[in-house]
Amino acid sequence: MNRARSALSNLATFLLALLLAFFIWMSASEMQDPVRTRFLEAPVEFVGMPADSALVDAPARQTVQIRLEGPDSVLQKYTSDDFTATVDLSQVPSGQMISVPIVVNMLRTGADISFITPEQVDVLLEQQVARDIPVALDIRGSVARGHNQGEALIDPPTIRVSGPASRVNELDFALVTIFLNSTNETLVETTRPIFYDLSGRVASVTGLELSQYDATVTIPVEESAGFANKLITVSWTGEPAPGYRLLSVTAEPPSVLVEGRPAQVNRLVTVMTEPIDITGLTESFQQTAVLDLPGSITIDPEQAVTVTIQIEPILTTSTYNRVPDLRGLRAGFQAEVVPSQVRVVLFGPLPVLDALSEDDVRVMLDLFGLSEGTHSIVPDVDIPDRGIEIRSVQPAAVTVTISPALEETPEPGDTSEAPGGGIAMSAASPVGPVRTAGITPMLCYRASVTMVTPELGNICEQQQIIQ
Fold first, then answer.
1. Entry pTM
2. Please, are residues 263 and 226 in contact by the beta-carbon 8 Å criterion?
3. What is the pLDDT of residue 303?
């Protein structure tokens, strides 16, 4: 008896110790991986929809919010893809608004769903129908004068609309509006119709299935008998001033509507203006033109025709050879320039180039601060600002040799050309020729020539002749 009591006491002690150990383990585990709450959203899918039925006013995207509870390490692994939320429509009657529960299933274990919201959704099922809605045409405005409007064509004439019966059956027609603003040729336009209900109000077709969203309208437009559009041909005489050319001749409007007997109108190929004289003109101009019409042809309606004549200068090139001007050559020095001339090619209006004088095109060499020696200088070309430009300068650089000026200068008419075709120039040149005096012996200046020997007398005579 005592043994049984002792064994029972030991078992109770063991169970109590085991329970305490379990609670201690649970407490330690919860401290390391605490139980938390997390919210996720999952999309709702409608399933089991009966054949020939449609869901009325269903939201574009229905979702359900799910609250999960479980260890934090487990909750972090869950995503929206681990849940399915479905609404079963197989038992929903047609034509009645009814609440259907949302069923959420978990595809991963380890956490519990404490609740979902919303728990149910209101749905309305209706019979799916399809109707051909006629397309009507509203034409506003009119075609141009002297033209006839043919019968309009609409493609397609009807648009098939599918959807819930309550929405499809309320549609009456689809309207296409076309504007004619004095149209003078066949009009083809593609536009989107606007649907109207049986009450004449604009109806929305969002969520409905349409066989075609756009409609193409063709409206034939033809000229009336006795009316026709004819192009205007501008007639002119003479030629612009020399150095100028005729660039273009245009008429605004480019054509006019003429009226007359059909046979005469058909024979008329173009409408001519009275001649416009452009003799000696140098600039563009505009003027109102007078049309030269046959006697029985008139313009309908009467309108002014403006002719624009554009005249511009002839653009060309011209070549000028110039001897460079030296600037800044130091006193007492001379400069040798090779080559001696620079060729300048100018581009611009021919009248301006022809009017240039010799002094209008100048080539200069800047020698300021240059010392004795040989230098490569880029020519500086000076031209007037008259709408011309420099196309080329040859050579691009000239060779200038600076040296001390010679004491003797050449006689008049003696031009010394530097080797290589250059020309030598000095900073200062004496005025007039310089004459070198001969050397005469002092005995020739004595008062008494009797003391001079015959040989010395001959020398004195020769020196006087030289002088």
1. 0.44
2. no
3. 78
